[in-house]
Amino acid sequence: MKVIETALPGVLIIEPKVFGDHRGFFLETFQVERYREAGISLPFVQDNHSRSQRGVLRGLHFQRTRPQGKLVSVGRGAVYDVAVDINPQSPTCGRFVGVELNDENHRQLWIPPGYAHGFCVLSEVADFQYKCTELYFPADEGGLIWSDPDVNIPWPLESPQLSAKDQANPTLRELLGKS
After folding, report:
1. How many other C-beta atoms are found inside a 10 Å radius of the C-beta of residue 134?
2. In the predicted model, is pLDDT for residue 29 greater than 90?
3. Least enclosed by CB within 10 Å: which of 75, 122, 138, 151?
């Protein structure tokens, strides 16, 4: 597997080895020793799978007191996946990493605890999987507005389909109390 460091501390792009022939393909989506060698050593406690249609944007989400590390991938379709540094003590606070994950490149993105995360669907439908290092607690969830002009993510869509909750997320300045 190939591990690519990004501009954000700890955020990694992982390209698993894919073994394919005329019948299809095989790849390991997780193997504890190999991922530990890549710096991903937190235990995973929950696996999630979501399906969304073209134009859906989910995020940007995080948990306040029980932050989740996430190892994300796409089993079907394509998404533009984003991690945003929201730590006010970090020199990269307000910066993001965006990468296309799809069922052809088989890439994964490792997002350590403490980052906001979201994705938008580029294909007709996308099946999105993520392994989490902390259980999901709805009362602990926070969000960052997808269109924050200070973060300036170049989402590859203009009018995403958003949940009511995601439409009401604050900007980074509001989130950090710097209005």
Report:
1. 19
2. no
3. 138
- Dihedral angle sign, alpha carbons of residues 144, 150, 152, 158: positive
Active-site residue among 35, 80, 115, 130?
A: 130
Q: Give the sign of the dihedral formed by CA 154, CA 110, CA 78, CA 62.
A: negative
pTM reported for the whole predicted model? 0.94
61 labelled catalytic = yes
**Comparing C-alpha atoms, which of 118, 107, 112, 136 is closest to residue 46?**
136
Residue type, 72: V
Place of tokens 């709805």: 138
Can 130 be counted among the known catalytic residues? yes
% of residues, the chain, pLDDT over 90: 91
